[in-house]
Amino acid sequence: MKTKPSDKSMKFRGLTKKTKRLLSGDENYEVDFKLKSTQIDPEDFVSFANSKNGGTILFGVKEVNVKGLQKGEIVGCEIGDKQKQIILDKALSCSPSIDILILVENLKSKPIFRVEINSGEKKPYSTNSGKYLIRENGRNRALHPVDLLKIFIENETGEFVKRFNTVTQDINTKLQILNKTFLEHLIQTTEKIIKQSEEKLEEVIEKLSGVNSDIDYLSDDINQSLKEIYDSANNAESLSDDAMLLSDENNYLIKDIFSKVQYLENDLMNLDSRMKLLLNHFNIEDPIITKQKLFLKDMFKIDMMQIPNNRYSSIVKKIKKRKYFVDDQIVDKFGKECYNRALKELNEENS
Fold it and tell me: Which SS3 state, helix, strand or coil, does residue 11 take?
């Protein structure tokens, strides 16, 4: 028999397919079992909200061991407004507060709460006492500094990509408007020039066809027609100027495009600054510097192998000449450290 919600408040007379699946497996990264609402701790919400896939907490369920596996057995719990408020208050006490969905299931027998916690959009989450946790292997564990840094970077870069896509889409739209408007005007201008020139040429041909008439009169008429063609050419130049004026009329679009490009540049600089602050806060070396230091160490090592007993200052001069390899500031700041590491590796290899 298919389970259906009994009303709009997400209440079910029986168990949903998801709950049956969660009960049949062991308590893992996506589900936690609680006997009653008073057992909930903000740490549980924080752990799931910080995890990649979020998770579910089932209230009114106890853990049982079946052939070495931890499964869930329904015992039921109170499902009144008071119990629901306890759960909500714990989620709201987190920093930032965590959105949850509370469902009531198994009303026809032993009712339970099913609480859904999505992976949060404002990671990292913490308890009001400052604890950062994540769900791992069926348990809550503290987030290490590297974990926190990873979350911060993912959030920062993710938000930047969203802003970047929005701005670039707007720029592309405005460029299409500019291109379309200018092209349409150019086509109209060209058609107008061609039409006017054709009309003047037809007049000249018509005059020439009456060659038997008075030559002087014809000459004056042709001169007049040629003058009109010349005026038409001047008019074409004026129409061309109108096309340029069209660009002036759309200057606001161009200025808006440039301002958005500038916004992206500033946003990228701010992102870089925030990343550096985070790296300093967690006392973690910039990965780009780490990579350059490793490369610098290898360069020292190669030069020392080629010319044994070569002095540090001599090798540094050679390295700095290869400007396209390592920045001079990296060499000045970390040269000695990389030189000693290279020397140590060589001694270990030769021992």
Answer: strand
Residue 15 backbone zone (phi > 0: left; psi -120 to 50: alpha; other: beta): beta
- Averaged pLDDT, 137-157: 81
Cβ contacts of 114 within 8 Å, gap of 6 or more: 16, 18, 19, 56, 57, 58, 59, 102, 103, 104, 105
Pick the residue with more confidence: 115 or 276? 115
More confident residue, 169 or 248: 169
CA distance 41 to 86: 10
Rounded CA separation 125/304 (Å): 50
In total, the chain counts a number of residues equal to 351
- Candidate from 9-13, 52-56, 131-135, 230-234 with smallest mean pLDDT: 230-234
Mean predicted confidence (pLDDT) in 65-69: 76
Percent of the chain with pLDDT over 90: 26
User: What residue has token string 């931890």?
Assistant: 70
Question: Does residue 102 surpass a pLDDT of 70?
Answer: yes
Q: Could you say which DSSP state residue 107 is in?
A: T
Residue with more model confidence, 269 or 40: 40
Judge contact between 23 and 61, C-beta under 8 A.
yes
pLDDT at 44: 95
- Let me know: does 35 contact 60? Beta carbons within 8 Å: yes
Number of Cα atoms under 13 Å in the Cβ half of residue 227: 6
Nearest to 319 by CA among 304, 308, 347: 304
Angstrom distance (rounded) from CA 348 to CA 209: 104
Q: Cα(46)–Cα(61) distance, rounded to whole angstroms?
A: 21
Greatest Cα pair distance, the chain, in angstroms, is 121
**188 phi and psi angles, rounded to 5 deg:** -60, -40
Name the strands in the sheet holding 11-12, side by side, starting at the edge strand that comes first in the sequence. Answer: 5-7, 11-12, 100-105, 112-117, 55-59, 31-34
The three-state secondary structure class of 5 is strand
Separation of alpha carbons 59 and 41, rounded Å = 12
* Integer Cα distance of 228 and 314 in angstroms: 81
pLDDT attached to residue 214: 45
- Is 296 buried (19+), middle (13-18) or exposed (0-12) by CB count in 10 A? buried
